[in-house]
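Could someone model magnesium ion with this protein?
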Amino acid sequence: MTCQSAVEAALLEVRGLRTEFRTDSGTVTAVDGVSFAVAAGERIAVVGESGSGKSAMAMSLLRLLAYPGRVAGGEVLLNGRDLCAMTERQLTAIRGREVGTVFQDPMSSLDPVMRVSKQMVAPIMRSPGLSRAEARAEAVKWLDKVGIPDAERRIEAYPFEMSGGMHQRVMIAMALSCRPRLVIAVEPTTALDVTIQAQIVELLKDLTSESGAAMLFITHNLGLVARFAHKVAVMYAGRIVEFGPVGDIFRAARHPYTQSLLATIPGVGATGTDRLPQIPGTPPDMRTPPTGCAFRERCLEAHARCSEAPTLHGRNRNCRVS
Ligand SMILES: Nc1ncnc2c1ncn2[C@@H]1O[C@H](COP(=O)(O)OP(=O)(O)OP(=O)(O)O)[C@@H](O)[C@H]1O
Ligand SMILES: [Mg+2]
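Reply:
Sure, complex below.
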């Protein structure tokens, strides 16, 4: 599948990415030929139902997939260098420095019994010419920016002394303090309550736009993305089924799956009842990925052409929904 939004001199260009999980009951194709590009400073949201392959795709980019996941094909070009072809050592130099990460569960990255100062200062000191005192001052500055009160004192706290929202703020400070060109945020708000979710999204938007970093933001919450993303990639059954500027997608989604997903957001296409609409049916079993449009079994507008292998043209011209 090709995506014509691939821009020249993209910061990140993903080409034909395939990710598999080999299990006793068969090989799950979690990411099935995904291609897209992220320009410098661009914020892209990746959305889709549970199981659509968002996390598998995001974790594949820096080869952070847990066993039995593996990248089975494709290229991940960061400034033209293929991360899939790099050694573990080369990738380690890129993780954190050039590409920062923020995960759903910050405690998977934070050591609960190591002071925040110790966890933040060492990575910042990898920048040449910075003394420990300067790196610590930089860490305090970032904690302050992410809204940690009394950062000068709180930097000496242990993560176990902080709330979930604070952990996520510390993770964001850690990710941005090394001044990455790209931030990959994987469901960074899922574990937080609704008001904190909006604050964290705003924070990521403000800080990345201030530093000029691009962002790939993975979420199953379409309602969160409207105000912060430049573009949206909609995933279904391991593929990107629609990709485009956020305004176009929200105003005039073309793929029936995107339309169904949008209808699940309260206030955007809401039905007027108290119950949120759900998309009827279930996603396909990715041990046997369907040919043609994977959504067609659940699609009320399916027609004969939907059994052909779909191609992304600009915004999905071959899924004819007008
Ligand atoms: N460890 C694993 N072993 C086998 N299959 C897996 C594993 N992890 C994910 N999968 C499968 O890969 C596919 C993509 O999963 P993934 O976690 O990427 O979805 P997601 O879009 O991130 O969903 P969610 O919104 O629930 O986080 C699913 O079919 C899932 O069942
Ligand atoms: Mg996920």
